[in-house]
Automatic annotation (TrEMBL):
PANTHER family: CARBOHYDRATE DIACID REGULATOR, CONSERVED PROTEIN. Pfam families: HTH_30. This is Helix-turn-helix domain-containing protein. Residues 460-516 form the PucR C-terminal helix-turn-helix domain. It comes from the Bacteria.
């Protein structure tokens, strides 16, 4: 069961577009119908119009099936009508018959389209905890009934996917876990010290966790959920003593069933992530038609901020980034404000923003994402200025440069936005140019810098402050914490070392730029 919106978002990567009844995007699809060779009158929420290339016929079939939407591969028009005419016809028929018309690219096979549609509509589910089949809750209830304890199903990052409705056999630790939708850090540390997590990662055998009144724990049994050698998650059930016999077998069998559910759910989720990522990357690289790509992403054609994020722990620079990507893409369709992609070692998110809107909304999004990650994960981020959809490649560069600023700052520093940090970014660019040797090696500033290095003088710093103070000797002296005569004497000695035409505005500007490029860090 998914919405038309999400179906269109995913199928957009296969050239499918929605026409007619745009309000139908929020409609839930619970079933799929495909006409039989001898019987076209079938029933279902989504009709696959296999067997016809006519939009008129496909819409009639859908109306007879009482379908909310129909997917059709129109035949190439032989009467000279253009693509726009076909689209207008599809929209008109959809409005007339109350059906959302999805036009597929004729180059895509029906078998490919049907495989994706059946996988999404019949196997994809959504839960309050994000991605994951709703059947997991029913499975948790069944396990709880058979075993007689409260059941919790978690993913490999200790986030709650489902739990049984029975709370009689629960305990304070379980309640806290369900409310927070993840195992608290103090409990994870306890399980780590007891070797529970290591044993779950290494074996398929159920592991008993003894009671711990100090942590609000009654006894419980845990078993790994695994696909081959890959750990997908775990199943936990409260119990006073280790399970044996039929109860132990039921727990092990339940873990196998959970694994199948998670694999199906991940296949669907990965498909949507792939489509979303490809579109976002093409927008950031400027290789896509911006209006079409934004439409396929389900976003309005408005200004956006590009957010660049890196996430890592001291001992791993990859797992945390993948976890951040999963968090950024949790939820479907209109349930998320932005769209994200992984590109290299950076997570990029397109977040709608008003042209004059401050960057605080983007910072709140970053804080929310960070809060969902383990406490050991460090997150650095950069935020672009608001950009039109055709300016997103420039927005990506701005976000990258703000990210570099944040990475060089103290841990916990507020992620910079280009609106507020363009001057620091300009100075970084100048310093990068200076490091490549692309500034003059000779001239007044170079001479003063060499003299300072050889003789321990402070001529370059004095000149920089004097220029910043626009020639005000008293103000410059106060900033340098020296007497005004000292500033005057240093300027005189500088003029003896190298020609300084301080009365020339162009030379003052050039010296200011070169001195800024020579500085080590932005002075804020």
């Amino acid at each position: 069961m998914i919405t038309v919106d999400r179906l269109v978002n995913v199928l957009g990567g296969y050239g499918v577009r929605l026409f007619g009844r745009p309000e139908a995007r929020s409609t839930w699809l619970r079933s799929v119908a495909m006409p039989e060779a001898c019987e076209h009158h079938v029933a279902g929420d989504l009709l696959l119009a296999v067997g016809t290339c006519s939009i008129d016929e496909a819409v009639r079939w859908a109306a007879a099936a009482r379908a909310e939407a129909v997917l059709v591969r129109p035949a190439p028009d032989t009467e000279g009508a253009g693509e726009a005419d076909v689209e207008r016809k599809a929209a008109a028929l959809g409005h007339r018959h109350g059906v959302a018309v999805l036009l597929a690219d004729p180059a895509v096979s029906w078998s490919q389209l049907a495989g994706v549609v059946y996988g999404l509509v019949l196997e994809s589910r959504e839960t309050a905890s994000g991605r994951g089949p709703t059947d997991l809750f029913a499975l948790a209830d069944n396990l709880a009934d058979v075993i007689g304890g409260a059941v919790t199903i978690e993913d490999r990052h200790s986030r709650v996917l489902a739990y049984s409705r029975s709370q009689q056999a629960g305990d304070p630790a379980r309640l806290e876990t369900i409310v927070a939708r993840r195992v608290p850090d103090r409990l994870r540390e306890l399980f780590r010290q007891q070797g529970v997590l290591a044993r779950l990662a290494a074996t398929d055998e159920p592991v008993f966790v003894p009671p711990d009144a100090g942590h609000g724990l009654t006894g419980r049994m845990a078993v790994a959920v695994r696909a081959g050698r890959e750990l997908l998650g775990s199943v936990w059930v409260t119990c006073e003593r280790p399970l044996t016999g039929a109860h132990r077998h039921a727990l092990a069998d339940g873990a196998l069933t959970v694994a199948l559910h998670l694999l199906r759910s991940r296949t669907s989720a990965d498909l949507e992530r792939q489509v979303e990522s490809n579109l976002v990357i093409r927008l950031l690289e400027g290789s896509a038609d911006a209006a079409t790509a934004i439409s396929r992403l389900g976003l309005a054609p408005r200004t956006m901020r590009v957010i660049a994020i890196r996430a890592y722990t001291p001992d791993d620079r990859h797992a945390a980034l993948l976890l951040a990507f999963e968090e950024a893409t949790a939820g479907f369709g209109w349930s998320r404000p932005g769209r994200s992609a992984l590109l290299g070692d950076t997570l990029y998110t397109l977040l709608p923003a008003e042209p004059a809107e401050p960057a605080e909304a983007a910072r709140r999004w970053i804080r929310t994402l960070h809060a969902e990650l383990p406490t050991r994960v460090r997150v650095t981020a950069g935020i672009s200025a608001p950009a039109e959809v055709t300016e997103l490649p420039s927005g990506r560069q701005e976000a990258d440069e703000c990210l570099a600023l944040n990475e060089s700052a103290e841990p916990g520093a507020v992620p910079p936005a280009y609106d507020d940090s363009w001057d620091d970014i300009l100075l970084r660019r100048l310093r990068a140019t200076a490091r490549t040797g692309r500034i003059p090696a000779r001239g007044p500033v170079s001479t003063l810098l060499r003299h300072d290095s050889s003789h321990g003088t402070h001529f370059a710093a004095t000149l920089r402050v004097w220029l910043e103070c626009q020639g005000d000797l008293t103000l410059a002296a106060n900033r340098l914490e020296v007497h005004p005569n000292t500033v005057r004497n240093r300027l005189r000695k500088m003029g003896e070392l190298t020609p300084l035409d301080l009365g020339d505005a162009r030379q003052r500007l050039a010296m200011t730029i070169m001195l800024a490029a020579a500085a080590d860090e932005p002075r804020r």
